[in-house]
Structures are given as structure tokens and as C-alpha cells.
Write a structure and sequence with these properties.
CATH class: Alpha Beta
Order of helices and strands: EHHEEHEHHHEEEEEHHHEEEE
CATH superfamily: (Glycosyl)asparaginase
Shape: globular
Radius of gyration: 17 Å
Number of helices: 9
Helix content: 25-40%
Length: 308
């Protein structure tokens, strides 16, 4: 039995012309490292759940991505993070939203799945649960990134919000995620994000929502999304891919293309997703200029890509 792993670090207006060689190298290395960590687990007969969690932790710990350490600033200068995880064998899932000070939100999402009776915890209650579970917390300085801070400074007293790295003219959705198939034939998906710069009113995107930003089902596929969250929620994107496979008999690639290049565009949504099925197929569609992504299949060379 073989294994498959794919990861993403966000989609959007990612142009080679505006990327320095050093920055491109840094992104490529960070993606390759997260992929290597997940692949190591899968090649040692580990579970898809362990692999997606470990890959996402690696991305959360890297300040280049809008999740964990690299999370953007909200309207009050804090960092509100969201994450979710799901496994395809028993359809077990865990999610957290609006958590602050937590080093690795994806770990808490898994704790919700495995150590509570619930699927989704948010805000203060989620943090109370995290303390009970002895989750790792960090001081505000840990999350302070100069690039993110300057982004926030430009728009902080306005009604505007921004998606991750975007300048006024371009948009980037800095979510991270991973999907995997293990040698036991089980699939899993995980997604984590710091949300939108200058977000207010406790805004929640698609990343922690099971069926919108994350979904896994052994009968179909595992999906992790990145994009303009409001549209992914309205389109129930992750579950929509699974539905097209289950009820219409579409292949993984055909289902992903239908959702990202047809249905999402109809409601003016932009972004992308990564997906694997139980046959080991991978799909990495996006309707933006780029998506930070990487994938590997057992016995094959890893692939790391940024642009179209």
C-alpha cells in the first residue's frame, strides 16, 4: 500500500515578478521541510492524521505563513487563530476558533476531536480547554512579525481588512493545510490560519469549519482549502468536492475543477484547495495567480510549486 501527502501555504496574487530570489527560496524551503516531516511519518507506516498534524505544526511554526507564529494582527492588535482537523475512517473532527496565545492551534483542534465530546470550541472556552489539556502557550512577542505589524499599521484605524500578505492591489490568502493518505488506506485533512489583517467583531473564516475549509471521508477524499473564506463557507467547498465524487461519480480532479473553476467563480470567490483520494490521486486546483503548495507520493520525488 502506498501513501500520498500534499500541503499548502496559501493562495492568491503570488507573482514571480514581485518575489525576490531569497524570499522564494525561503518559502520553497519551508514547504519542503513541512512536507518532509509529514512524509517521514507516512513512510514509517504512521497515520494520515499524525502526518497532517505534524506538517501543519511545521507551517504554524514558520513566520512566513499566516498561521501560528506568523499570524496577522486583528483590529485590536491581537492574533485570533482558527484550525480544524478531520479523519476519514470514522468522520471524527475537531476545530477551534478565535484562540489567542496558542503556539499550535492545530494541536488543540486534535485535542477537541480526541479528548472532548465536541467538534468545535471557540474563544475563551476553547482556551480554558487548552489550559486543561496543558497546551503550549506563547507570549505576544512570539507572534510579533514586523512585516505583519506594518501591514496592520497601514489600515488599522480604517474599516478595511486585508487577506494576509496582500498589498492594496493584490490579494493573498495565508492559510496553511495538509491532506494525506496513509498505508492503511485512511485519509485525513488539517487546516490552520491567522485569519484577516484588521479583522473585527470576532470574524471567523472557512478554515475551522468542517465541510467548508476542511473535510475528510474515506469513501471520497480529504480536502483543505485556502481563499476568501466567506465564499468558501457559502459554497461549502470542501464538502462539495466530496459530494460530487460520492453522488455524481466524478474523479477527484474533475470534482475539484468543477468547484474551484466553476461554482466558486460563479459567486466571485477566489482561492484554491488541496485534495487526495483513497487511490492516492492528488489535486491542487486554484483560480488565483499562485498557491504555495507541495506534494509527494511514496517512491516518487517531492514537488514544490508556487506559481501557475
Amino acid at each position: 500500500m502506498s501513501f500520498t501527502l500534499a500541503i499548502h501555504g496559501g493562495a492568491g496574487t503570488i507573482l514571480k515578478s514581485s518575489m525576490t530570489a531569497d524570499k522564494e527560496k525561503a518559502y520553497t524551503q519551508a514547504l519542503a521541510e513541512a512536507l518532509r516531516i509529514g512524509e517521514q511519518i507516512l513512510s514509517s507506516n504512521g497515520t494520515s492524521l499524525d502526518a497532517v498534524e505534524a506538517a501543519v505544526i511545521s507551517l504554524e511554526n514558520c513566520p512566513l505563513f499566516n498561521a501560528g507564529k506568523g499570524s496577522v494582527f486583528n483590529a485590536t492588535g491581537g492574533h485570533e487563530m482558527d484550525a480544524s482537523i478531520m479523519e476519514g475512517q470514522h468522520l471524527m473532527a475537531g476545530a477551534v476558533s478565535l484562540v489567542e496565545g496558542l503556539k499550535n492551534p492545530i494541536q488543540l483542534a486534535r485535542m477537541v476531536m480526541e479528548k472532548s465530546e465536541h467538534v468545535f470550541l471557540a474563544g475563551k472556552g476553547a482556551l480554558d480547554f487548552a489550559q486543561r489539556m496543558n497546551a503550549t502557550f506563547e507570549k505576544p512577542e512570539y507572534f510579533h512579525d514586523e512585516f505583519r505589524y506594518n501591514q496592520w499599521q497601514r489600515i488599522k484605524d480604517s474599516d478595511h481588512f486585508q487577506l494576509d500578505h496582500s498589498e492594496e492591489k493584490d490579494r493573498k490568502f495565508g492559510t496553511v493545510g495538509a491532506v494525506a493518505l496513509d498505508v492503511h488506506g485512511n485519509i485525513a485533512a488539517a487546516t490552520s490560519t491567522g485569519g484577516m489583517t484588521n479583522k473585527r467583531f470576532g470574524r471567523v473564516g472557512d478554515s475551522p469549519m468542517i465541510g467548508a475549509g476542511t473535510y475528510a471521508n474515506n469513501t471520497t477524499c480529504a480536502v483543505s482549502c485556502t481563499g476568501s473564506g466567506e465564499f468558501f463557507i457559502r459554497g461549502v467547498v470542501a464538502y462539495d468536492v466530496s459530494c460530487l465524487m460520492e453522488y455524481k461519480g466524478l474523479s477527484l480532479q474533475a470534482a475539484c475543477d468543477e468547484v474551484i473553476h466553476q461554482r466558486l467563480l460563479k459567486i466571485n470567490g477566489d482561492g484554491g484547495l488541496i485534495a487526495v483520494d483513497t487511490k492516492g490521486n492528488i489535486a491542487l486546483p486554484f483560480n488565483t495567480e499562485g498557491m504555495y503548495r507541495a506534494s509527494v507520493r511514496s517512491g516518487e520525488k517531492a514537488e514544490v510549486l508556487i506559481y501557475k
